[in-house]
Each structure stands twice: as C-alpha cells, then as structure tokens.
Design a protein that fits this description.
CATH topology of the largest domain: Rossmann fold
Strand order of the largest sheet: 3-2-4-1-5-6-7-8
CATH class of the largest domain: Alpha Beta
CATH architecture of the largest domain: 3-Layer(aba) Sandwich
Structural class: alpha/beta
Bound molecules: guanosine-5'-diphosphate, magnesium ion
Oligomer: single chain
Distance between the termini: 32 Å
CATH superfamily of the largest domain: P-loop containing nucleotide triphosphate hydrolases
Helix content: 40-55%
Number of domains: 2
Largest sheet: 8 strands, mixed
Shape: elongated
Strand content: 5-15%
Number of strands: 8
Radius of gyration: 22 Å
Amino acid sequence: MADGVWGRMRAGLARARQGLLGRIAAAVSGHRTVSAGLLEELEGALLAADVGMPETMRLVGRLRELAAAGELFAEGVAATLRAEVARSLEGSSRPMRRAETPPSVVLLVGVNGSGKTTTAAKLAHALRGEGQRVLLGAADTFRAAAAEQLGIWAERAGVDMVRHAAGSDPSAVIYDAVAAARARGVDTVVCDTAGRLHNKANLMAELRKMVRVAGNACPGAPHEVLLVLDGSTGQNALVQAKVFTEAVGVTGLVLTKLDTSARGGIVLAVWRELGLPILWAGVGEGLEDLRPFDPEAFASALLGADGAGEPGYAEG
Ligand SMILES: Nc1nc2c(ncn2[C@@H]2O[C@H](COP(=O)(O)OP(=O)(O)O)[C@@H](O)[C@H]2O)c(=O)[nH]1
Ligand SMILES: [Mg+2]
C-alpha cells in the first residue's frame, strides 16, 4: 500500500521534471491517429506547462482541425505544436525603446524575488556591452540590503550607481539618478524598485509616483516600465501582470528563471492574454544571463527542434 503511494508520487514528480516535451512524447507514443483521447492528454500537458486555458484551447483546436482534415497524425503532433507556438508568438518581442535625446530611463517593477535587482545588473551589463553609458538607480529603498546588493552588482558590471539612505523616498532616487544621467551624458538609466511595501496599495502608489517623478526629471521618461516576472511562478504571474499593468503603465516584460522552469508555457499565456511584449529573458544568475527574447528559439526550446540546443533557453 505505502509502496504504491510512493511509487505514484515518484512517477508524478518525474513526469513534471520531464516538462512539456516529455509529456507530449508520452501522450503520442503508441498512437497513430490524433484521437479525442490523445487531444485530451495534450490539453492536460499544455495546461500543466502553464500555457493557460485560452491558448491551450486554440492549440488543441488547431490540432483537432488538422487531424479531422486528415493532415495530421500522432507522429506530427510535436512539430505542429512547435510551429503553432512560434506563430502565436510572432510579434511578441521588440527592442527596448530609446529616448530621442538621452538619457533613456528604464524602470524595473515586480514582486519580491522575481529578479528585479539581478535583472537591473544584467541589463546594465548588456547595454554597456553595446557601448552605452549606463547608470543604475537603487530605488528599492525599502531595505538597506537592496541597495547593497545592487551596489555589488554595479561594481562587477563597472557601472555607477545612485543610491540614498534606506527608508528614504524612492522617487527622490529616481529624480537624482535621472538628473545625474543628464549631467554626465549617460545613455540609459536602469532603476531597480522595491517589490514589497507595507501593503499593495502603498507599493502601487509609490510606483506611480516614481513614474511621475521620472517624467518631471526628464520629459518622455520613463521610456520603459518593465515588469519582471518569475517564469517559474506559473499562472500567478498573470495575476501579477494584471495588477501592475493597472497600477502603472507597464510597457513590456522581462521573464526570468527560464533556465530553471520546467514549464515555460507562461510566456504563451502572458502574450495571448495580456498582449505585453516580452523584451528580455533571464536565463541564469550571472551578469551574462540576459537575452533579448527570441520567440523562435523559445518555441524550439519549449518543444524541441534542431534549435533546441540554442544557448540560453532551458530545455523542458
Ligand atoms: N536561475 C535564475 N535565477 C535568477 C534569475 N533571475 C534572478 N534569479 C535569482 O532570483 C533570486 C531573486 O532575485 P532578485 O534580483 O534579488 O529579485 P528581486 O527581489 O525582484 O530584486 C536571486 O537568488 C537571483 O539570483 C534567472 O534568470 N535565473
Ligand atoms: Mg531586489
């Protein structure tokens, strides 16, 4: 009895580890035609991978259509899904907006632990690699440790940082960082923010003020408000995206931890359900581990293909 329970649990976990591709392969094996039962299993696999209901329904509907027309057999399911996912994600990325007259101002927002501070450092590093002059703004003044953490990264990245004392007004940091950037001929200011305040309303009010103050410090700023989402948090990422989008004008997304997530399908859900472009993908904890989001490479990494070994995206 106990053995049975443990055996099932082990098997269940192994299945989760295998990720989407493994589950599709398992569903398809032994089938020749795309039966209703197979479609149901595929639906389960897509939902388990956080693809979300609307996009799952679209994908499964498409498979059903092709199968009914005699154009799809079980062996072609993975390749067809890959092509459909790539098609879904067309137009889901774009380069970051730049100010006509520097500095460009980028605010990173998101809940605690999503990867904002790490992303600020990676982004500064990436832009520096493009030859830009970059300045970091430590506008997470909620905890002293936050500015310290960013300071260590700034040093590693060889980028200057503006910070104030812990507990001070984060908007003042934004103002000073933008003013300093203008004075020093900086191309892009990347600002870290806090993910937790005393309550959600408080946090959102603070963020709105930061956006306003950035605009006061430099007309047209912020040029991007990027919501940083942990790609492994699943459907809750959608809830976060809705909350932040309503509170501040989120212009795009950074999806982090795609290297650790066996699910990744959240990318499809956020694009279909929110239409927010995905600008960057976080694929590790190091300075180099940020990539412009590449929909094709992502579809290949998620569903396996020749490009699946593409550096930087996790394979299921
Ligand atoms: N594996 C992995 N870990 C990440 C990634 N981005 C951030 N992290 C880790 O997530 C944790 C929280 O990151 P942090 O930047 O402090 O989040 P913040 O609270 O939003 O500022 C840290 O341990 C980071 O190293 C990523 O793309 N991949
Ligand atoms: Mg932080």
